[in-house]
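Notes to self after the call with IL:
- keep both proteins in one doc
- input above output, always
- annotate only the second one for now

Protein 1:
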Amino acid sequence: MMETILVLGGSFAGISAAHYALKHTLPQLPKKEGTAYNVTMVNPSKDLFWRIAGPRAIVSKKLMPSSKLFYPIEPAFAYAKDKFTFVQGTATHVDAAGQTVSVQTASGEQKSIPYVALIIATGVTTPSPLFTQTTDRASLEAQYGAFQKRLGATTSVVIGGAGPVGVETAGEISEMLNGKPGFLGSEPKSPKAKITLVCAEKKMLPILRESISKQAEKLLKGLGCTVVYNTKVVSATNPAEGSKTAVQLSNGETLEADIYIDATGVRPNTGFLPKEWLDNRKRIQCNPKTLRVDVAGARIYVVGDAGSYTRGGVMDMYDAIPVAMTNIKTDLIAHINGAAPGPDRHYTANLKEQQICPIGTSKGVGAFGGNQIPSLMVWGIKGRDYMVGMLAQGQMNGDKFAKETKWKPQAVQAVGQAGLSRG
């Protein structure tokens, strides 16, 4: 009999969870005659899309070639080929009572995959298709090609949303069209295009302090980008092919643009799940300490941006993966042995001011561990290549979790009926 740890999602969280399970969970499970264990991953694409680099990828294949954007998933698990299965497809339904997930494969086949433990790592989708890989590599590459062709001829761009994606995109597009800033960051004398960034709040980059946001505005201004504050995009309509898009703002203004980019946050990929599993933001309700989806039933967990526990981001995922995977191991050992689970490992959110935002190819703003960092350091960490060289291969091969992270149980919890129900 094959027992499967099923991972839904093949982006940062899903790939990390699968590596952790193969390296540290499966080897420690009790041997049971006639039973083997497997990790199965379901993902719509065969490749990981390095979405961190999206703002630069949309403007130039030369600055961000496809070889740095897409990483085949299956070869990264070659070391565990007898214990790892990849399914290219999309989850359409979860039957928690029967412990199965319905999947529509890329070829249109309907499959039902049983699981002994389920890890939901389906992440989020951006409103603009430029920053999310919803199907396969070829589709996204085609979108980039079409967008870059339009960008080369544009004279006006409006970007809605002033989080990191919106700000980074504004910087990349402004520099591409208007050139690098002049002496001491002065504005371009003859800008090719009018770039407008629409911010719904009183400042950009919500996680960062206002003074850093002001520095970001100054850098954008040097690239010929104007920021509009306390204003939302109400609608964006393009009535005819080749005509300008009318961007209606909440302040009553209408901006005409050759290109409008919607960077107003993200939407969780949770539409296939029961509504009672979701919170009012459509994120998966989970125990914020253990990352179990308690409302769903036994041995179901969430990691990554689809979960209610996180404010998002790769760095936060690195804190969450060891917690979820330790608790999965504990629960599976209890399930196999018919015993009560051991103590839980707890997740603690890192809420320090921490975000790094390149603005163009040579400058940026940010903070790390609660401390503001200089523009040159932003470039060195992220702005140089959007962290491709630093993290991509380590992320794909699971090097970040090559060793099982240690922890000390705070206290051995009393075992009662609630504890036994996890088995």
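Protein 2 (the one to annotate):
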Amino acid sequence: MEKIIVSRSIPQPFKDQLEAIGQVEMWDESLIPMPRNQFLEAIKDATACLITLSEKIDSEVIKAAPKLKVIANMAVGFDNIDVPLVNSKGITVTNTPDVLTETTAELGFTLMLTVARRIVEAEKYVQNGEWQSWGPYLFAGKDLSNANVGIYGMGEIGKAFARRLKGFDTKIMYHNRSRNKDTEKALGALYVPFDTLLEHSDFIICTAPLTEETRNKFNAQAFEKMKNDAIFINIGRGAVVDEEALVYALQEGQIAACGLDVLREEPIDMAHPLLSMDNAVIVPHIGSASVTTRNRMIQLCVDNITLVLNNQYAKTPVNLK
């Protein structure tokens, strides 16, 4: 009998599909992670698990789960999983690429425009009853039209973001671990060194995954090189940014503003200095949060589990070279 652990509450139709192939033990909360000790206990005799980024899959988990065959991660990134260790035990790791690309790019674009036009500040101003009259420079923001936009990480989400820039007559630069001339031709993007991206961009969008190469990439030295009126947007991974350096850059006027969908620690500590800054807009990791996309992500996880437990190849296995 297969046993499948689901670490967050998912809609009944998806649970029904999993129950057709085994016993399902599902954490009933959607906003609160399954406690670590409970997860470790539940996974002892599990053959599959459907998890989120909140669940850290390390040697402790693998040691506790000798029957585990597949881990379906409801995300594109998989920095919460020790993939080499898991693969060495013959366990399949899967993720959810492609299905969330467009939705995440849309959120990034929304966040960029929201910060550029100071929408959150302006809305609070109205709600607080402070709006007395029109003013020539009242909440004057920054134009996207004709701006230099730098994309750090030209993967699928980076390319989807770049496609959305075409209607704004922007100049697109990008930096990636490898150059893609087909992408440059299709999107009119210019490949540049990282320092050039920092020095010449009016907007910098980070879509990069977390790797040892990208960890703390946006540090004090990086923010010092940016334009004083630059806007920084992160829809990649929180640990790509040194948050102390970001706070300093905002306080000292090294950059103008930021918009963040991801943070180093989630949820954010309510005492975090970013929360007191008018020029920082933070949303709760909702890049892929449309109903259609979340349904597709869960369905892909269910499909991967079903395939592996039926001794077939997963649709989207994570294979590290």
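Annotation: The first helix runs from residue 12 to 19. The mean pLDDT is 97.
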